[in-house]
Amino acid sequence: MLAWSTVRERWTGFVGSFVALTLGVGVLTASLVVFVSAQPAVPDRLAGAAVIVQSPAGGADAESYVEYVPWSAQRADDLAGTLSAVPGVAAAVPDRSFYAQLVLDGRPVGDPQAGDPIGHAWSTAALAPYHLAAGAAPTSDGEVALDAGYGLAPGSTATVLTATGPRDLRVTGTVDGPGIYVADAELAPGVRAIGLVLKPDADPDAVAAAARAAIGDAGTVVAGDARTALEPEAVTRVRWLGTQLITVMVVLAAFATVFVMASTAALNAYQRRRELALLRAIGATPRQTRRLLLGEALVVGVVSAAAGAVLGVLAAPVLGDLLVRAELEPAGFAPSPSLLAVGPAVLTGIVVAVAGAWVAARRAARVRPLEALREAAVDRHAMTLPRWVFGGLSGVVGLALAVLTATSDGDSALTMAIFSAMALILACTLLAPVLIPPVLRALTFPLRRSATGEVVRESAGTAIRRTAATAGPILLTVGFATLILGMVKTMSPAFGGEDARALGVDTIVTADGTPGLSDAAVAALPGTVLSGLSTQVFVDGTPVDALGVVPGAVPVRGDAGALTADTAVVADPRWQAGDTLRLTFPDGEAVPLRVAASVEPGTLTTPIVLPRDLVRAHDPSALTLTAYVRGVPPTAVPGGPGVRAQDPLAYTAGDDEDQLVWLFVLVMVGMSVGYTSIAVANTLVMATGDRRRDFRVLRLSGATSRQVLRMVGAETALVVVFGTAVGALVALPALLGIRAALAEMTGVAVRLVVPWPELSVVVAVCAGLALGAALLATRRTLHHAQPR
Amino acid sequence: MTTGTRRAEAVLLREVRRTYGTGDAAVTALAGVSVGFRSGSYTAVMGPSGSGKSTLLHCAAGLDRPTAGTVTIGGTDLGGLSEHRLTTLRRELVGFVFQEFNLVSALTAAQNVALPLRLAGRRPDPVDVAAALAGVGLAERGGHRPSELSGGQQQRVAIARALVTRPAVVFADEPTGALDLRSSRQVLGLLRAAVHEEGQTVVMVTHDPMAAAYADRVLFLADGHLVDELTGPGTPGDPGFAAEVAARMARLEA
Predict the structure, then answer these.
(1) What is the ipTM of this complex?
(2) Which of A67, A174, A366, A480 is most buried (CB neighbours < 10 A)?
(3) Interface residue B64 vs chain A (CB under 8 A)
(4) How far apart, in whole angstroms, are the C-alpha atoms of residue A229 and residue A46?
């Protein structure tokens, strides 16, 4: 009850904790709701197949996704025949899909992911099942049935874009589900799944068992929830990206909340040491004192966790929508709140609140009753043992990593530079009480002659705890912002741009609104065009990315020019020139191919380069991702639908992946700035209220209100400058280290990019909030402390 | 703890020494003081700044531990008691009135008075709390928070709180230091009434001869030694006695 009374009465001291924790639990709840909702799902278009037979799993690709080795059309038909004889199976339908996109008014509609094509054989519509909304099913070449949503009536002509180019087809019917359906998917590569439509009373598990017995190890039979394995890789990848962002947000929110809670609790307990000492004097045992503070934290924790949960549940759909729009969650994703998501979030909030107050409560419990009788003036013990231990440890680790950075190379140097900077920033934050007096003295040396300056200098220097509590979060944020923003900006141009220039490329053409360029689009390009069809082949079951290029026109160095119409060139240490590789193509056909030449790994964009015609023959859906044009500037390249021409540098800067990284970075920096602002504003509001007596003395000694405000303003600005300067200084060596590592890796000089605009925003937000909070709180305090 | 079983000496100090720091920097605050405070007595402790009067109070109240010597409160030797045991003993046997910041600002006057009982795990009887507040003339103010009370009223709430547990001794550290004359007289009168009407024991540190003149006995400290003692005439705030106390103080400070 005492805890409840103090929280209710001294609410100003808890506002910061409340806001921080409410936001923290809000972010956590929203993220967890999204996370829990974002589970793999059976693709809608296969939902009607209670049992699905997958082609055998191959190895994992470069991004650790398991790829399935396709069956050839013939093999799939044989298996479907075997499977349709299994008792309980009404139909066994091979899933035959290919790249197709409708062109309306000269623009491709939608932007289907390469791994999740919407062109299908009409027979697969039975697997959803989708039905005709109007008209008839396509029965011959040149006919198509379309999603009714496109608005094309039966009888009209549809322009359908495929890997070879646009083609006009006659619409025979419309369908009540998504997709473009043709009579026989001759454009489809191999088959990776056969859907079994069951008879009405068949038991899926029994059918699955019978199917397993029927086909042996020719494929994997899945039923029920296990069918989520059929989710297209593209969708899985998108969700994986979303999960990454969510994880970053959750970790950041949790870290920042604990940080704010702990520092607020410490300051709160420190400010109330007289009251706590009084309680101790009149008979509260250390245990009772500790329980009081933990009780307060519990009250704050429960109230703000509840508020945060409500906030989070309300924010979850917004977050889900944003993620879908940023293409970090599959389209149609809608988060739904569940106890599984909200429960842990609320619990975490309460635990964080109590844990944050734990150290402060333990310290406060040791307040000696005598302190109630003393005028507490100067901070004597702003440095605590944990600060010394963890600060010292971080410093040592940071310095050790910095030394290691210099002696290691490439990737590991990069990682070490980052960790070194992080450790040093953390060390500076923890050791701030030790660093503050000398640095402040140096910074304020010119101020020592004016009266205001002297007060500013002395009070910022003596109230180390307050100064550290304000400067700490700023230092942390500016340090991390400098490091991360600088790192991303420095790294982006380092990759890609130089390569393209070295090849004498004037224009880079990429797809716009389609997953890749069709053969027709590539053929229409002027000048000398270097391009390749992207595909994936299996070597002994292991998926390998491959590029199909015209022999003799290979945009690569050295022996790679040795490619002929019936050989391969490899850039992978597993294979040598003269080896014969048995390649399984996306159409399921296996082709033996001799290796004409082997080049240094990394000198080609893919581990295997193949003749273009061979790729086209065995992968009807293969597209050209990038075409390099020599001798023609971007402006002279005809635009056309689905084509974007850029000069090499603009291309590098506008890279999709970079933009994604940039989005991640902005979310991280934005959240850190937000939390810093809360921490700083809270600290200043709390600390300023505590200085009522100081202000009164100043006013009584003849300082005008304006002078006091100016003093507080100057003091706050000083602290912000301190935090900014130290934060930036600590991050700079790491950035220089990263630059050196990059230069060594790429072999070209790398320019250090400091993103001044973004950094200025970060510092401005910190400074603005700090000044605003300090001045408003001072004005309020002055109002209450008129000299009498 | 009932009044009937109390020893004659509510608080007894024997050869109490207290030094701060070590080596050359060592400062002796108390240089071997032996003194007893009889049950039902009202004692004022005076002395110039740095004479050790605050240290004496802290040691006698169990807030500070002597470097040497023994302190007994209500017959219990404080030496060797754990912090927890010392706290519970203070809760049962000692009441405090400080110069300022006596009350928990988040609690009402009545809640502040009941606090020592609640900390001891007892359920405070509202009648007792109301009686304690009425005893200091604040029966109507139980629901007010400290910020809504004047300085004098706050000190009276503090006295009610100090007395509510019926402790063996009440220590008052400059209880009138921050008050005007009228409020000071009220507070001093209340402390005296507690002694003479309720049989309480009060030890008060003050630098104000007027305040000291309310006590039955005045002790003078200088340089950590007990140097003098005066016994009052029995009338509260007797101007002659006050003048005599002031004269002794003047001599000590000279």
Answers:
(1) 0.78
(2) A480
(3) yes
(4) 12
Instruction: Write down the pTM of the prediction.
Output: 0.67
Closest C-alpha among B204, B206, B205, B229 to residue B217:
B229
* Neighboring chain B residues of A280 at a CB cutoff of 8 Å: 87
A272: nearest CA in chain B?
B104
Calculate how close chain A gets to B162, using CA atoms only, in Å. Answer: 8
Task: Give pLDDT, residue B155.
Answer: 86
- Between CA A146 and CA A178 the distance in angstroms is 8
Determine whether the interchain pair B119/A284 forms a contact, defined as Cβ–Cβ distance below 8 Å: yes
Contact A128, A45 (CB under 8 A): yes
d(CA B155, CA B112): 12
Q: Centre a 10 Å sphere on the Cβ of residue A332 and count the other Cβ atoms it contains.
A: 8
Cβ distance B119 to A288 less than 8 Å, yes or no, reads yes
Determine phi and psi for A89, rounding to 5 degrees: -90, 125
Determine the pLDDT at residue B2: 39
Measure B222 CA to nearest chain A CA, in Å: 21
| Cα-based angle B162, B166, B167 (whole degrees, multiple of 5) | 70
Query: According to DSSP H, which parts of A135-232 are helical?
Result: 204-215
Distance from CA of A278 to the nearest CA of B (A): 7
> Residues, chain A, total?
788
Confirm if B16 and B68 have CB atoms less than 8 A apart: yes
pLDDT averaged over every residue in chain A: 80
Across the interface, do B87 and A10 touch by the CB < 8 Å criterion?
no
* Cis amide bond preceding A129, omega within 30: yes
**Cβ–Cβ gap A285/B107 under 8 Å:** no
In the structure, what pLDDT confidence band is assigned to residue A309 with cuts at 50, 70 and 90? Answer: very high
Q: For residues A642 and A618, what is the distance between their CA atoms, to the nearest angstrom?
A: 24
Amino acid letter at B107?
L
Q: Is B196 on the interface with A (CB under 8 A)?
A: no
Phi, psi of A687 (to 5 degrees): -70, -35
B69, B16 contact by CB (below 8 A): yes
B40: number of Cβ within 10 Å: 17
Report CB contact under 8 Å: A282, B90: yes
Structure tokens at A165: 């180019």
Distance CA B189, CA B212 (A): 12
- Asked whether A536 and A545 are in contact (CB, 8 A), the reply is yes
Q: Measured between beta carbons, which residues in chain B are less than 8 angstroms from residue A785?
A: none
Residues near A638 by Cβ (< 8 Å), separated by ≥ 6?
A: A524, A526
CB pairs < 8 Å spanning A and B? 76
Tens-place pLDDT, residues A453-489: 676 767 766 677 777 777 888 888 888 888 878 877 7
Of A6, A283, A372, the CB nearest to B119: A283
Element spanning A142, H or E: none
Search chain A and give the residue with CA nearest B85.
A285
Say whether residue B25 is in contact with chain A using an 8 A CB cutoff. no
State residue B97 phi and psi, 5-degree precision. -130, 115
Task: Cite the DSSP H helix spans in chain B.
Answer: 53-61, 83-93, 109-119, 126-135, 151-164, 181-198, 209-212, 239-253
| Chain B positions in Cβ-Cβ contact with residue A9 (cut-off 8 Å) | 105-107, 145
Question: Which has the minimum average pLDDT: A9-13, A172-176, A329-333?
Answer: A9-13
In this prediction, residue B112 has a pLDDT band, given cuts at 50, 70 and 90, of: confident
Quick one: which H or E segment has residue A130? Answer: none
List helix spans (H) across A282-384: 286-325, 339-365
Please choose, from the candidates A606, A662, A782, A766, the residue with its C-alpha nearest in 3D space to the C-alpha of residue A711.
A782
Distances in Å between the alpha carbon of A377 and those of A270, A271, A348, A459, A693?
12, 11, 37, 11, 11
The strand pairing partners of A171, in sequence order, are A144
Partner residue opposite B90 with nearest CB, options A9, A283, A286? A283
Residue-wise pLDDT tens digits, A425-460? 888 888 887 887 787 777 777 766 666 667 676 776
